[in-house]
Amino acid sequence: MNTPVDTAHIQAQDRAHFLHPFTDFKDLAGRGARVITRAENIYVWDSEGHKILDAMSGLWCVNVGYGREELASAAYRQMMALPYYNSFFQTTNVPAVQLAARLAALAPEVGGRSFQHVFYSSSGSESNDSNVRMVRRYWDLLGQPERKVIIGRINGYHGSTMAGASLGGMSGMHAQGDLPIPNITHIGQPYFYELGRPGETSDEFGLRAAGWLEEKILELGADKVAAFIAEPVQGAGGVIIPPDSYWPEIQRIVDKYGILLISDEVICAFGRVGHWFAYEKFGYRPDLVTFAKGVTSGYIPLGGVMVGDRVARVLIEQGGEFNHGYTYSGHPVACAVALANLDLMEKENLPGRVKNDIGPYLARRFAELGEHPLVGLAETCGFMAGLVLTRNKATHEAFKPELGVGMLCRSHCFRLGLIMRAVGDRMIIAPPLVMTHAQIDEMVSLIRRCLDATLADLRAAGQLD
Ligand code: PXG
């Protein structure tokens, strides 16, 4: 049952005291925040009693859906046994060890490289800060301290700390706070729909986009480059799915120049693309893998880095203290919840379900949305998907950004009971991995109604031919 909430009172307190992330404070104060009070399975409810289908899994994290008692009991049991202890001063705790071993067993070995070690944090951002520290320590230990530069991608998202926001390629974030920090630079994103040339195939474009990495390495000097970081599929950048040719070519280039490859799988791991880890799907061999979100299905904060043999061997065998870590590195409650979450995912075979059942079904239903007059492209990868809204299906002409067509569509979604995100005019979803076929049908018909409502508005405003 929904606990009764005085919406106006909570909104007033929210306005008075709570500075929200990535928010125009003045604008939100003017309208008042939507108060979410409870959730079950794939639905959330607000304080006014509206039921909303959450096609974003919270913020790309609630992979097992809401209301899973097993996760709550695991937290309760661990809090009663050992709510906290640190892992700094030659101490450890059972859930942190068990989870590290479990993750090492889940991460597939590729090309003779395995992941036997985990470094813990509490979020994706912190994990990427750890990556920067670890990568630089690795090259220092190998006597190549001049290898400092980390290359990321435009519109990549790697978090919001100083290092995370610098690794990411979001211009709005760089514009605030003198970012990126030194020795981080970016190449273009593998977004065929926007950057492909007339007559170019998607695979030709994939090779060209990967080639930007080689150009950048040569421009900087290979002996200055420490690592390349990328998301398997760009998430916050708008579910940008790379052409098939992209990742193999990236692998060839990082191998050629000996630079480390960091796969930021904060969104893509734990079933999202139909595998425990996404590098397996795309067939590349990262040295470090960032994870967070889905490892606990968002029930409690936890993140970390899977450290591959190449880096672990140097860090461990060369000795010397690694001067880096967090109060909550290996938090016993977070790790116990993660173990319960992985148990559930394994029991319900969620990665396999995405790969062989609901992923292909979503792909089929999404292809139908591609027929809609407003949609220029509809594509999915596992259980994430994007739709591009266009003025003209044949020419892919974009709407003027000042029209805010994506935001218009998003507001129809909220009104009609669907959470779908807008990144510019790309509408994106990443629903919980427990969705049934009937719920996929329900979601797709809601999306269609939102598209129809947006189309009607644009026609009424004379924005379509
Ligand atoms: N890497 C990736 C690939 C992410 O998607 C982070 C790192 C940072 O994780 P933390 O836990 O520090 O937030 C993320 C987070 C959006 C949105 O608007 C996406 C994220 C976070 C907030 C908003 O899509 N992804």
Short description:
The chain has 465 residues and is α/β, with parallel strands linked by helices. It is 42% helix and 15% strand.
Tell me what you see in this structure:
The chain is α/β, with parallel strands linked by helices and 465 residues long. It folds into two domains: 34-64 and 351-460, Aspartate Aminotransferase, domain 1 (Alpha-Beta Complex), CATH 3.90.1150; 73-347, Aspartate Aminotransferase, domain 2. Helices cover 42% and strands 15% of the residues. The protein has helices at residues 7-17, 25-31, 57-60, 69-81, 94-106, 124-141, 162-167, 171-174, 192-195, 202-220, 246-257, 278-282, 309-317, 332-347, 350-369, 405-416, 437-460; strands at 36-40, 43-46, 51-54, 115-121, 149-153, 184-187, 225-230, 260-264, 288-291, 303-308, 375-381, 384-389, 418-419, 421-423, 426-429. A hairpin with a 2-residue loop joins strand 11 (375-381) and strand 12 (384-389). The model has no long low-confidence stretch (mean pLDDT 97). The chain binds 3-[O-phosphonopyridoxyl]--amino-benzoic acid. 3-[O-phosphonopyridoxyl]--amino-benzoic acid binds at residues 59, 123-125, 128, 157-159, 164, 231, 235-236, 264, 266-267, 292, 303.
What's the topology here?
Blueprint: H1 7-17, H2 25-31, E1 36-40, E2 43-46, E3 51-54, H3 57-60, H4 69-81, H5 94-106, E4 115-121, H6 124-141, E5 149-153, H7 162-167, H8 171-174, E6 184-187, H9 192-195, H10 202-220, E7 225-230, H11 246-257, E8 260-264, H12 278-282, E9 288-291, E10 303-308, H13 309-317, H14 332-347, H15 350-369, E11 375-381, E12 384-389, H16 405-416, E13 418-419, E14 421-423, E15 426-429, H17 437-460
Parallel strand pairs: 3-13, 5-6, 5-7, 7-8, 8-9
Antiparallel strand pairs: 1-2, 2-3, 4-10, 9-10, 11-12, 12-15, 14-15
Bound molecules: 3-[O-phosphonopyridoxyl]--amino-benzoic acid.
